[in-house]
Amino acid sequence: MARGHVDLRPFVLCGSDEIRIVPGGLTRVALKEGSLVVNSSQGGGTKDTWVLDA
Known about the structure:
Circularly permuted type 2 ATP-grasp protein, single chain, three-stranded antiparallel sheet
């Protein structure tokens, strides 16, 4: 597995009386070695995020 820059964006659900943070989220990654760019429109990509324990 190669090391690289990542950015985790959590999902937050807001209801009329509750705010909930969902386990996991969207992980954006820099696809080019040494790059810090994680934005998909500029050459970054995404990876699955697994939450194994609460």
